[in-house]
Amino acid sequence: MDERVIGRSGQRASVVGLGTWQLGADWGDVDDKEALAVLEAAVESGVTFFDTADVYGDGRSEQTIAAFLRGRPELDIFVATKMGRRVDQIPENYVLDNFRAWNDRSRRNLGVDRLDLVQLHCPPTPVYSTDEVFDALDTLVAEERIAHYGVSVETCEEALTAIARPGVASVQIILNPFRMKPLREVLPAAEKAGVGIIARVPLASGLLSGKYTKDTVFPANDHRTYNRHGESFDQGETFSGVDYESGVEAAVEFAALAPEGFTPAQLALRWIIQQPGVTTVIPGARSPEQARANAAAAALPELSEDTLTAVRDLYDRRIKDQVEGRW
After folding, report:
1. CA-CA distance, 93 to 88, in Å (whole number)?
2. 3-state secondary structure of 253
3. Which of 173, 184, 76 is nearest to 128 (CA)?
4. Is 204 exposed, middle or buried (0-12, 13-18, 19+ CB in 10 A)?
5. pTM for the whole thing?
6. Of the candidates 91, 103, 193, which has an alpha carbon nearest to the alpha carbon of residue 142?
């Protein structure tokens, strides 16, 4: 699989990585055996980049990755984690002492002395403008607790503020055919500054897979049930902030745009890979079959201009007005 440089880190990531929120919590139940099988399928398919967080299953996702990599010491996998969601979401909690404690926990969970990449996990907006926060992150690098740092953001404005910080290696942002606003300013600014872009929620929480109908029922412990209106965290993390019923209708139209040999999910992933400035896209997977199918998108032919135009038209007609004013 092709690899791209993760911005200012100088390290490389497969163009399709693996998001591991599903392996921790909030997507229904995934047992340990199945979680390890997903990781195995991903690396067999050429994936060299895992994205996790300290709150995914209260550390379970990090621990599962560690268990997998202990059994496969020959692998060279870049692991990005996140921190900041273990406490009340107020700027005052984003301080060096907390960073050290969170990093120590993630290092134990992942079984490493130094973390490859640590991202602030969608912190309160003022955090991105606070010099002391980034001074503290620089201290963690100097102390060799972390090799590099980045941010995971909710809004384009937060992304642009972070990109201006000289030590930020990467920005993780929601980007998919139902969330196109980052294409206008964020990706060009990141590319100019040499900052990597990690595209998350690439399938709009599964909407873009074309598998769901208005009658689909998700488990009670799945965020697509309990966070549909932003009850537990930012609504944009669930179905990209798109209203579910209208999103299902738009997804049917999107699926019809898939070229021969593409699944709808692979169309979405291929669309993201082709956007200038994207480093890697991190779909999650609940089964080995999903992991392999997602990775296969990297080898599919580039989308034609006609397909790209049709995807844009769908977004402009059905989705744009729902999401652009908020994120």
Report:
1. 7
2. helix
3. 173
4. buried
5. 0.96
6. 103
Contact indicator for 296, 281 with CB cutoff of 8 Å: no
Q: Residue holding tokens 């992304």?
A: 159
Can you tell me the distance from the alpha carbon of 78 to that of 112, in angstroms, rounded to the nearest whole number?
12
Burial grade of 85 (CB within 10 A; 0-12, 13-18, 19 or more) = middle
d(CA 54, CA 21): 10
Q: How far from 315 is each of 77, 183, 254, 278, CA to CA, in Å?
A: 35, 13, 9, 19
Q: Which amino acid is at 3?
A: E
Alpha carbon distance 148, 118 (integer Å): 7
Helices (H) and strands (E) in the chain, counts: 12, 10
Which residue type does 60 have? R
Paired tokens of 26: 């909030």
Residue 278 Cα distances to 14, 36, 200, 231, angstroms: 11, 27, 11, 30
Could you tell me which of 90, 6, 20, 14 has the C-alpha nearest to residue 53? 20
> CA geometry: angle at 190 spanning 102 and 146, to 5°?
25
The CA distance from 278 to 291, in Å, is: 20
Q: Which residues contact 148 (CB under 8 A, 6 or more apart)?
A: 6, 8, 9, 11, 116, 117, 118, 141, 169, 170
Tell me which residue of 256, 299, 217, 327 sits closest to 45, measured CA to CA: 299
The one-digit pLDDT tens for each residue of the chain (327 residues) are: 999 999 999 999 999 999 998 887 665 667 889 999 999 999 999 999 999 999 999 999 999 999 999 999 999 999 999 999 999 999 999 999 999 999 999 999 999 999 999 999 999 999 999 999 999 999 999 999 999 999 999 999 999 999 999 999 999 999 999 999 999 999 999 999 999 999 999 999 999 999 999 999 999 989 999 999 999 999 999 999 999 999 999 999 999 999 999 999 999 999 999 999 999 999 999 899 999 999 999 999 999 999 999 999 999 999 999 999 999
